[in-house]
Amino acid sequence: MVKDIENKKDDSLEIVFSKKKPRFSNISFAEVMAREQKFWDNFNKKYYYLRDTVINQIKKLYLISFSNQNSLNMNMSRAKYMEQLKVIYLNGILNRERLIPEFNFDRGDSIQNMFTYYYYIKLSNLKENSDAKTLLRNNFIKVKEDIQESYKSITNKEGDWLENSLVFYNFLLEIEKLEKNELLFNEIELMKEDIRGKVKKEILNSSGIIKNNNYIKYLDILSQEDQIKNINKLLENTKNLIRLLKKDDNIDSKANLSLSLLLYKNNYIVESDKIFYNIDYFINYNEKYNELDLEEVYLYLINIQYRGLI
Question: Helices 52-66 and 78-94 sit at what angle, rounded to 10 degrees?
Answer without folding.
Answer: 110
